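[audit] Reproducing an earlier prediction to check determinism. Same input, same settings, fresh worker. If the C-alpha cells differ from the archived copy the diff job will pick it up downstream; this log only records the rerun itself.
[audit] input (742 residues):
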Amino acid sequence: MEKITEKLLLEKSSPKTSKLEQIKILDLSKLGLKVQDLPVRLLSRLQSLERWDLSGNRLQELPKNLELPALRYLDLSDNQMEDVTTLESLRSLEELKMEDNLYITVSDNYKLMVLLPNLRIYNGKDVSTTANRMRYVYSNNLRTRIIAVWQKSFHLPDPITAEKMSALETNFVNAARQQVKFGPSSVSDFTKWRVEILAKEYLCSLTQPKEETESKESTDIEENYGTSTPTKRKQTASESINLTPRKKLRSDLPASPVEDSPRKNSLRLRPQTLPQSNTVRMSPRKTGQPPSTPTRGQMKAETPKRRSNVRQTKEDGARMKENEGVGKTEPPRDAEQLTRRKSSSTAQQPVCLKPLHVLQCHSKQDSSEDFSTQLWACAFQPLPDSNGAGGGSRLVATCGGDSLCVIDCETGMVMKKYKVPGEEFFSLAWSTVLMSRGGKASAQHCSILAAGGKRGLVKLIHPRNNVAYGEFRASRKSLSVLRFNHHQGNFLFTGSYDNKIVMWDIGGVDSQYNFKVVQLLMLEISATPLHICLPLASPSSHLLTACEDGLHCYSTQLGTSSATKSRSKEMEITFPIYKKEDEEHDYHTIDGLSFLTDDIVASKNVMHGSIYLWSWSRTRAQRPDKKNRAVSAVVLAELQWANTDIPYLSLNTCPGQAYIVCGDDKGRLWTYHVTNLQKNGFQAGKPIQPTEVLEWPAPVRKGFGEVEGPCINSVAMDPELHFLVALSDKNMVIVWKRDESS
C-alpha cells in the first residue's frame, strides 16, 4: 500500500519528480487522498515540500514531530483541528490557513504565533505585529511575574537531586499557573499554557552553569506610540519634533515624492584619459613619518556636518611608521576559511572593472552645477530567491541630500526618485517583506526600501509599485545608519545621533499598504553608531556596531531576559593600532565594517593606513575583561590602504566573489581579491598590497574640463560583482561594470 501511495504522489506531484524528497507542492485533495492515508515515514521524506494543501481532511491534529524544513505555506482550513501544538515542529512556516476549524479558539491562535517563530500571514492577514507582541512583550511580562512567584515562595533544594527537582518543578509550575494573572480572561488558556512553559524554562536556567553576564540586559519592548525614541549629523535645537507616529499613504506624502519616468543625468567620461585596462596596479609605497592628525575631540566637532570639504591628506607616498611593535597579527590557522563561501571558479580570478556612468541624480533643484551635495549610502536590490522575492541585481539605491534614487546600472537611467524637501538622507537598506492580498490569495514577497537621515524618520518605499507607503519616527535626532536582519526581513535596526540603536518590527503590508511598527529592543551605546553589522550565519544573535569610540558587540537575542530600560554591551573589540595612540592620534573611530565570510570581518580605523581582517569566532571566544569588557581582535591580516585623515570613507565586501573595496579621498577605489592569505604572501606586521587600485575616471564637466577626484564616501557591489557603485562627496554616482571579456 505504501508503494502504491508513493507512486501516486510522484505521478501527481508538482513539479514532476522521481523522488519524494524533491516534491515542492502537494495538494492531497486533488489526489483523492487523506493525510491519514500517508504513513509518517512517507511524510518525513518530503524534505523539499514548500506548499502543502491539507484542507478538507477532517484532521484533529498533525503527526507529532513531523519535520518539513522547507515548508513555508500550509492550508489546514475546513478540518476539525483541536490540538495546535502538533504544528510546533514546522518552524519554517510563514503562512497558515486555519479557517473553518470550529474548535480553534483565540488562545489557540496565540499559541500558534508563539510556536511558529516565522509565522507572518494567518488566514490571509498579516499578523507579524501581534505575533511578536505575544512572543516577546506578553511573554516578558509573564516571565517577570513568574520570577516574583519564585522569589517569594521557592528556593533550590540542598543538595539538588532529581527527585527533589521533580517535586519542586510540579509545585512551582502549579503555583505560577494559579498566581500569575495577566491579560484578558478570554485568553486565560493561552496564558496558563505559556506560564507553564516559561516557569519550566526559568527553573531549568537556575540549575544550569552560568557564564558571567552583564549587570543588566533588556529587550526594551514597546509599541511606537508616543515613545521617546532615539539620532547622523546633529540637529539644531530649534527643530521641532513630533513624537506621534505618522503612517502616510502615497497621496499624503510631500509633493512629487516619486519620479517614475526613467531619466539619465550624467557627466561625460573622456575615454582617452583612461588607461586601456582602466585600472592601475599599485606597487608598495615607501614608509614615512605619520601625518599630523586631529584629536578625537577635533574629529567629533566635524561630525555634525559629516565632513567638511577641506582635506587634511598627505602625499600618497607618505606612510605611517613600520608596524613593528604595533601589536602582533596572527595568520589564519585555516587559510581555506576565506574560500569557504565561494563555490564557482569565477571567484578565483580577479575581475576587471571599467567605468560606465557618472551621474548627478541628487542635485539640488536638478542643477548640473551642483557639486556640493554629499552622497552617503548605496545598496543593490537583493537577488531573487526561491520564493521570487527581491529583484534584478542591476538596480542600486543611492541616497544623499533630500533625495533617494533607484538606478539601472546597465543603462545609467534613474528609474525612481523619491524626494523630501528639507530632509537629508544618510542611510538606506533593502529588505523583503510579505504583502497579504486578502481573501484566499496567498501572500507574496515584495522588495522594499527603508531610508532615514536628519529628521529621525524612517521612510518605507515599495519601488516596484512606485509607492512611498509610509514613515515612522525612529529617533528624536538624526539617523546615522539602517540595517535589516537578512534572515528576518521585517526586523530593522536604526542607529542615531543620540547614541542609541533600536530594533523594530516593521511587519508586512496589506494590499492597501497598511502597516504597523513595534519597537522590540533598545541598545544604549557610548557614541554615535556609524555602521551596524550582523553575522552572516546568525544575524538574530549578535550585533556589531562601529562607532566613533570603537567597535562594540551586543546580544540581540529576543525573549531571553526580562524587559528593562536598556541592554549593556557584551564586549568591546580592540585593535593593535590603539597602542600607537597619543595626544594627536586617536584611532578609535571605526568608519568601515563588513563581513567577508561567515567568520572573517573587514574593518577600518580612521587615520590608520590599513584595513584589518580578523576572526569573529576566535575573537568572540575570548573572555572579556571584567572591568571594561574589552577583547583583542584576533587579526588575520592587514590590507594596505590610503594614507588619509579624512573620516567616513566606508569599505564594503562582496562575499561571493571574495572582494573588499574601499574608496579614498582622491576618487580611487582600492580593491582586494582575498582568496588565500598564505598565497598572498602574508607576513605578520606586513600589510598585503591591494589587488588593483581603480583610478578616478576623470569625467568632463561641460565648459570646465575634467572634475578632480572627490572623496568616495560609500561603495556597493552586487553579489556576482557585475557592477560596482561608488558615491562621492561632490554629488557624483560612479558606476563601474565588469569586463566579461577579460
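[audit] rerun output stored. Observation attached for the diff report: The first strand starts at residue 25 and ends at 27.
[audit] end
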